[in-house]
From TrEMBL, chains A, B:
Pfam families assigned to the protein according to its UniProt record, in alphabetical order: PhoU
Quaternary assembly: Homodimer.
Family label: Belongs to the PhoU family.
Keyword Cytoplasm attached: yes
Localization per record: Cytoplasm
Record key words, sorted: Cytoplasm, Phosphate transport, Transport
One Gene Ontology term from the biological process aspect of the record: phosphate ion transport
Protein name: Phosphate-specific transport system accessory protein PhoU
Species this protein is from: Sinosporangium siamense
Job description of the protein: Plays a role in the regulation of phosphate uptake.
Length: 215, 215
């Protein structure tokens, strides 16, 4: 019975890592769709989000099954409960990629991103991808040190987010209100995405050590 | 032992209801702080958020204790796992009230809200309060029908949110970019707050019936 339990736990880890891959790909495609005004790509992010949701449901079902049949205690209990929370955060990251894609779709064939903002958005997209890639490695390797690296990347994201506001508020902003609203929301989506990625990594630390970090 | 378990469950329900009260009060004060540029009130929202976080931690500790000692299965297991998720949503609602209060603090002694937007913000604040009050009743009474009412209030919130964007984008908007950014974020915070309130109510339905609604 305990072997079945550990097989199930391994499968669970695999599903969580797969979720990081899906939401990384979703945000990567959403960023490109936004910068290239690529409607089919935006649509693909929106339509494929159901794969993320389904994986999240599979994880929940598997955890409920585990808890009902194996009645884990102590460390095992902590592991499965934390995995539930991780799946919920990853699912939310998929939603945030969809929000970015929907702005790209709404403005198509125009671009929601004025030329002078493109570099910042590209960089936020790259940091988002780097963060979630590291989150995936954290889950796979259960490496608590890697989780600390994520917090630095998250600080970088926060700096870019503040730079975005400064650009919107600068004298030279000449695009008016609508793009300012779009960029405000887009900035918030990347920042939240990064936040969730860090939370998932912190949950890995909690799983491994039993101590909460950085909250 | 089962009596101790049900006492603990009742205490858990009480704590969740208390969380709805705290985050209702937080958003109510945040809305007033925003509309009246009331700095001490804004500060009170920000400093008292730790009470919400502490209650959330108490709930988590109590649930982990319950699971370790009582090893609940089936309906009982569903109940405690769902309660964990509800506490996390309520904790997030407290954060969103803090975000609103921080915008009030940042713009003080000015107001972040131009005159023609005040009514909309006031109404969004009132709907937010109504929603979370109903969420509290849902938790207390386990009334699944009440949960459906919440979805109507949430639709109302979404309409107000769209109206906010229309006002920002109208020809008559003369306040420039900074207030537009503030209002975009504020609108998003109320909308997310409402969303979490609905999710908590949906979780009550899930606890009672075992079926997910509205997701």
């Amino acid at each position: 019975m305990r072997d079945a339990y550990h097989d199930e736990l391994r499968a669970l880890t695999g599903r969580l890592v797969e979720m990081t891959r899906l939401v990384r790909s979703a945000m990567s495609r959403a960023t490109t769709a936004l910068l290239d005004s690529d409607l089919p790509l935006a649509e693909s992010v929106i339509s494929r989000d159901k794969d993320v949701n389904q994986l999240c449901e599979e994880i929940e079902t598997s955890i409920f099954g585990l808890m009902a049949t194996q009645q884990p205690v102590a460390v095992d209990l902590r592991t499965v409960i934390t995995a539930l929370r991780m799946a919920a955060d990853l699912e939310r990251m998929g939603d945030l990629a969809v929000h970015v894609a929907k702005i790209a779709r709404m403005r198509h064939p125009d671009s929601a991103v004025p030329a002078e903002i493109r570099d910042s958005i590209l960089e936020m997209g790259q940091i988002a991808e780097r963060l979630v890639t590291k989150t995936g490695s954290c889950i796979l390797t259960q490496n608590a040190e890697l989780a600390q690296e994520l917090e630095q990347d998250d600080d970088h994201m926060d700096r870019l987010h503040r730079r975005l506001f400064r650009m919107l508020l600068s004298e030279s902003w000449e695009h008016g209100i609508e793009p300012a609203i779009d960029i405000t929301l887009i900035g918030r989506y990347y920042e939240r995405y990064a936040d969730h990625a860090v939370r998932v990594a912190q949950d890995v630390v909690y799983m491994v050590t039993g101590s909460r970090v950085g909250e």
